[in-house]
Write a structure and sequence with these properties.
The structure holds two protein chains of two kinds. By secondary structure, chain A is mainly alpha-helical. Helix content of chain A is 70%, strand content 2%. In chain A, strands 1-4 form a two-stranded antiparallel sheet. Classes of the chains: A mainly alpha, B mainly alpha.
Chain lengths: 333, 298
């Protein structure tokens, strides 16, 4: 039984945690199991190897990548609203280079540097100019929209013509290595990498210190500007990778399509915080959050409900998970 | 602004100003709701007050209103149920934030999803046309050739400015947001003020919905896209206040500012693709300038 204190200053809810509330912390896990069992019984074809693989590739992979970056950013006490911009710019540069017959490696590097540029811009705004992350990344999001509209003549998608791909292009999105699709390897490596980075390195500890008390971190010698700059750059890079995978799966660049991941990534990250006793984001928590969202999306589709009711059900389910897991935890100031 | 008044002769004309007022009314009313939530919730981005469900709540209310009118209900019933919807969503946010203690950011995010879902169920993702004598009267021109929509916007702005900035209630709202423990120690029933702010925000969504149905002659899809504009205008409004706090006056000014900006672009025939970008640069410029100013002062 862990005794703990509220993370918020001056809160009058010091150690008070019963066995019940420490169980409630695992609501996400319980909800995940419950949803999984329910769908296995109710949804035809849910519990088949091909569908489970399908969940991981089509629902889980990209959202997981985006949410990993978001987890780091939220850990520092910031937020990245421009993840969609990084995805889109990465995808735009990548697809443009491919369609103008460049080498795959050039296109890959180009895509990642496109996203990197977005990250550097965010880092400049947040770390150098001291703009609050919410506004800084919101500004980036708006500028990114204009850039894309200007580059694509108001939002025309760029389609790649089959047969003109350089060697290895289709492999990124749909390739197969000993029976497992290639994106899964990228996601697995990223999750492990981010896990080690966030929870087992000095950098990770400094990130947490920055998020907990920026002032104290600064006095203790943490170079807070550098840390927060790095966090936004990392987030943008991994979003760029997601953008490249996305565009090589659909063989196109669709302007402004990245924003679809923003709210889900925030949702997954914060669902993940319910796992932590001090409600901090963690890589494992985020991964569970993404898994819950992707299983629900896939399962409701299979049950064959009206698409519109799926949205309602999804919203209510997330609401319920949050409601249960926030019961009995220290109230935020 | 000066550039626009020189470049486009009609920019400063009376009719154009009224036009901008009418176009900004919906965004403005929503932003008032957001401002109140941000005042009572405090300014911390992650743990502070925010209502992400506002724009989708408007969409849901507009869908309810339009479909009730289409099924032949009289205006009074439709308006009543629209407000009922908006207030219920506000109440749901209240339960989530105050009752269950969920962070406002994710609480309202999940409520936003629920609203979006119900809106889709109601509209099947199509536009529901709606007309009624009441709506026609709203869109009609009142005195001085300005539509009643613009009048409602200005009157609401006035009511909110007085209510939030010049009453004991408003002062307490600020107290709750600025330092919750101190407000509680001073004997304020803190939860009640936060609850009221979310319910008011729901009411703003309902008002916005009625205005939008009247302006567009029906419900429209994609109202959720307005969310970011609402957030921007509220946060941009902060720089209009001397102490850099959200105020209704500031929000009102920033909504008009954005309205004039878009309008100016249209009048000078600049491609609309630039609008978002310029808006973004503007936010960053204003915020960077103020944060620099703050650093110099301290």
């Amino acid at each position: 039984m862990v005794t703990e204190f509220s993370s918020s200053a001056g809160s009058d809810t010091a150690p008070r945690r019963s066995r019940v509330s420490s169980l409630l912390r695992y609501t996400v896990v319980l909800a995940l199991i419950a949803v999984f069992v329910f769908l296995s019984v109710q949804a035809p074809g849910f519990l088949t190897p091909s569908n489970l693989l399908n969940i991981v590739v089509n629902n889980f992979a990209l959202l997981a990548l985006v949410s990993l970056g978001m987890t780091l950013v939220v850990s520092t006490g910031g937020i990245d609203l421009s993840v969609g911009t990084s995805i889109d710019i990465g995808s735009l540069v990548f697809v443009s280079l491919i369609s103008s017959h460049h080498q795959l490696l050039v296109a890959l590097l180009g895509g990642v540097s496109g996203a990197l540029a977005v990250g550097v811009f965010n880092a400049f705004l947040v770390a150098a100019l001291g703009i609050t992350p919410f506004l800084a990344t919101l500004g980036t999001l708006f500028i990114g929209e204009s850039v894309q509209q200007l580059a694509t003549n108001g939002g025309q998608p760029i389609y790649l013509i089959t047969g003109t791909f350089p060697a290895g292009f289709t492999f990124i999105g749909r390739g197969d290595l000993i029976g497992i699709p290639f994106p899964i390897y990228i996601v697995a490596v990223s999750i492990v990498g981010f896990f080690l980075l966030a929870h087992h390195t000095q950098f990770g500890r400094q990130v947490v210190a920055l998020g907990a008390r920026a002032g104290v971190a600064w006095y203790s010698g943490v170079r807070i500007r550098r840390i927060s700059a790095l966090v936004y750059i990392l987030s943008a890079i991994i979003c760029g990778v997601a953008g490249i995978i996305l565009s090589s799966t659909v063989k196109a660049y669709v302007p402004l399509s990245g924003n679809a991941y923003l709210l889900d990534a925030i949702g997954a990250t914060f669902i993940g915080t319910t796992l932590h006793p001090l409600s901090r984001p963690s890589v494992a928590g985020t991964a569970l959050g993404v898994l819950l969202l992707s299983i629900v999306t896939n399962g409701l589709l299979l049950i064959g409900w009206n698409f519109y009711w799926q949205q309602v059900a999804r919203g209510i389910l997330i609401f319920a998970v949050l409601a249960v897991s926030f019961r009995g935890r220290p109230v935020h100031a | 602004m000066i550039y626009f008044s020189i470049a486009a002769a009609s920019f400063t004309s009376f009719g154009n100003v009224a036009n901008v007022l009418e176009q900004s009314a919906i965004l403005g009313v929503l932003s008032f709701g957001m401002t109140i939530v941000m005042i009572s919730g405090g300014s911390n981005v992650i743990t502070g007050g925010i209502d992400l469900s506002l724009a989708n709540n408007l969409g849901l209310c507009a869908a309810v209103y339009a479909s009730l009118l289409q099924s032949g209900q009289p205006d009074a019933v439709a308006v009543f149920l629209t407000f009922f919807t908006g207030l219920s969503v506000g109440l749901l946010n209240t339960i989530a934030v105050v009752g269950l203690g969920i962070l406002p950011l994710i609480a309202t995010l999940s409520v936003m999803n629920i609203c979006a879902g119900f809106e889709l169920v109601l509209t099947q993702n199509t536009v529901i046309p709606a007309t009624s004598p009441f709506l026609a009267a709203l869109a009609d021109n009142g005195p001085l050739g300005i539509s009643y929509l613009a009048y409602i916007f200005v009157v609401l702005a006035f009511i909110f400015i007085v209510g939030v900035e010049f009453t004991p209630f408003g002062l307490r709202l600020y107290a709750v947001g600025a330092y919750r423990e101190a407000a509680r120690a001073a004997g304020l029933y803190v939860d009640w003020y936060i609850a009221v702010s979310y319910v008011l925000s729901g009411a703003c969504a309902a008002v916005g919905a009625i205005l939008s149905v009247s302006l567009l002659n029906g419900s429209s899809t994609g109202s959720g896209a307005m969310l970011l504009s609402v957030v921007v205008s509220t946060l941009l409004g902060v720089v209009f206040s001397r102490r850099f706090i959200p105020t209704i006056t500031g929000t009102f000014l920033s909504v008009l500012f954005i309205g004039f900006l878009i309008n100016g672009f249209q009048l000078t025939n600049v491609s609309s693709y630039w609008v978002n970008g310029v808006e973004g640069v503007l936010i960053l410029f204003v915020v960077a300038a103020t944060s620099l100013l703050r650093r110099v002062e301290s």
